[in-house]
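Weekly puzzle thread! Below is a chain. First person to post its structure in token form gets bragging rights.
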Amino acid sequence: MRSIQQLYPVLNQGDPVFLRADLNVPMHEGSITDHNRIDALIPTLDGLLQRGARVVVATHLGRPRGRDPDLSTAIVARALEQRIQAPVMHVGEVPFAPDSSEAFSSIPSGGVLMLENLRFDPGEKDNDLDFATALLEPVQYYVNDAFGCCHRAHASIVAAASLRPAFAGLLIEREVEFLARLRDHPARPFWVIAGGAKVRDKIGVLAHLSNRLDGIIFGGGLANTILEGQGIPVGASRTEPAAFREVQDRLGNGPELVLPVDFIAGDDPNSPSTISRVCVGDHPPKGSMFLDIGPDSIDLFRHKLSAAATIFWNGPLGVFETKAFAGGTEAIARMLAQHSAEVVIGGGDSAAAARSLGIADDVAHVSTGGGAALEFLEGRTLPGLEALEHSTGTDSR
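Winning reply:
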């Protein structure tokens, strides 16, 4: 896989570069609520601009069905412009049309143009070669820095990498460095904290890592599912009963499995009217569900993790978005921020929790890829990384 570091020496002033980014930022009522993905792109984008490249930035945003003005990348272009403190021209077209090609040709060295939402065109999700060809029509080089999209076989991720000399951006290089070490050569003892609501998504990863793992700490839906499978009452807690047998079959003879010993229960994850502490084995109040780990579980988890050399955290330990159920996730996050182990935090909700608690800069790495990170750790081939590995694209303009 060619590195962007190999592109820098051959870049000339004004060379046109296509930069596939993952700027699928969360939004609420027309405003961006988390700029992390924009910030994560800046090192790669700055590296290109400082060398005089003219850069086309392309991303998807949300899950549009055709053109949707609420999912235009214009808002992302404005946010990026503020971050780099330089103009970002936005064109309402994807792929390039005559007007947008002319606009790009007028951009000076060190300039940026952002295309409209890639998913406004069905060719993106279809991995359509004609669509990819149109995307790259005015550029000389292709750079992929969208690690969070590399598990998708989409045109701007796969087909495009075959059409021009293709390079991995700095973010992809960093993600692969940390995640490959976790997957293949972690320092031992190696522990995983597995929380969140998506039970089935995590079992394959845990099974793939199991012969290198010393222990797994369970929270969230995984903990509820295992406890229910063991016949322990969990009230109205969300579980995936079909997943319990898979956990037993794939992890039963592997690393140490550690479950919570108490919970904070409530009748509503968002606006609870009743909150209580429930010890495992006791019947929770009728209609209540386990929404956070309790103080004894926090102490247990801290003790189990104290000697770890590597820790991977994927999934919060409670409904951390609600203050009443954020205590467990916050306590473990702050412990990880002070831990001497190499701590890697998975994407998605655990990354959001790390950022909201202000500990992202205190751990070794916070991944930008939720599904992509999990599939990588599970040993699956990511189409985007494979396309970079096999790229023989040449400048055919």
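Puzzle host: Confirmed. Bonus trivia for everyone else. The radius of gyration is 23 Å.
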